[in-house]
Amino acid sequence: MRILVINGPNMNLLGVRQPEIYGRATYEDLKAMVQKEADALGVEVEFFQSNHEGALVDAIQEAYFRRIDGIVINPAAYTHTSVALLDAVKAVGIPTVEVHISDPDTREEFRHTSYIRAACAATIRGHGLNGYLEALRLLAAK
To answer: Each residue of 60-76: pLDDT tens digit?
Structure first.
C-alpha cells in the first residue's frame, strides 16, 4: 500500500509558527514520526508540502496516475477556501483523510468551514501530530 501525505501552506514552518497552537515539533519531526508508523504498518509513505494551491492540486492528480492507494491531507488554510482541492480529491477517487493538528471548529469562525471534507472518508482534528498517525492507520486498514 502506498500513501501520500500532503501538507498545505505554512506547514513547513511547524515548530516556528504559533507553537502555542501547533506545538514545537518541526515538519521534519512530523515526517519522521509518520515514517516510523508507516514502517510499523508495512505501508510505503511519501510526503509533499507546498504553499501553492495549484501544486497541491497537481500532487493529488499525480497520485492518481502513480497509483497511490490513499492520501492523508492537511490543506491548512486552503481547507477554508479551496474548491479546487475538493474537486481534485473528488476527481481522482483516492480514499483521503483530512487532518488538522488543531481543531478548527474551536478557532475563528472562518475556520469552521472545510470545503475538502465533503470528499474525504474521514476527518481527524485536534489530535495534534498524532492525527496523522490515526489517518495512516485508517487508510492502512482499508
So the answer is: 999 999 999 999 999 99
